[in-house]
Amino acid sequence: xxxxxxxxxxxxxxxxxxxxxxxxxxxxxxxxxxxxxxxxxxxxxxxxxxxxxxxxxxxxxxxxxxxxxxxxxxxxxxxxxxxxxxxxxxxxxxxxxxxxxxxxxxxxxxxxxxxxxxxxxxxxxxxxxxxxxxxxxxxxxxxxxxxxxxxxxxxxxxxxxxxxxxxxxxxxxxxxxxxxxxxxxxxxxxxxxxx
Length: 195
What we know:
Structural class: alpha/beta
Order of helices and strands: EHEEHEHEHEH
Distance between the termini: 12 Å
CATH topology: Rossmann fold
Largest sheet: 6 strands, mixed
Helix content: 25-40%
C-alpha cells in the first residue's frame, strides 16, 4: 500500500448509472466545474493529498461501460480500496438501479474489508428531486457506507465524501496492519495493488 517514500496508495472506484461520475471527478480533481463537452473517455489523473500526517496517492477509476459492467469490474474491484456508488437524486430509477444492480454486482467481487461510500449526486437540482436525503442515508446505514449528497458544481461536497472515506480507510488499515508503511515499499496486502 505504500512506496519507498512512505506514500500511501489508495485506489478508488466509482460506479453507477449515467449520474455525472465524470463531472463529479473532474470537480474533485480540478476544483472547477467541467466544460459541457467533457469526454466520457477522460482519464482521471492520480492525485496526491495530505490527510493529517499522511500523504496519499489516489488512483481513481470509473466504469462508464454499462454493457460490460460485470466483466470490467472483475478486473478492477479486487484491487480497489474504496468504492463510491453514485445515483442521481433527480432520477428514482438511478437510485433503484444503484441499490438493486450496482451494489449487489459490486459486492460480489469486493475484498472483505472494502470501504464504501454512497453519493446522491446532482443536489444542485433540488427542485427536481425524486429521491429524498433520508432514503439515501438509510440505504447507506444499512450497508455500513458513508453517505454524502454531491454536485459537480461544488468542490466541498465531493471532497468531504472522499476525505471521509480516506480517513476511514487509513484508520482501519493502520489499526489492522501495523506494517501499513513498509520500508521496502512492498505492499502489505493484496488489495492494495495499484490499478
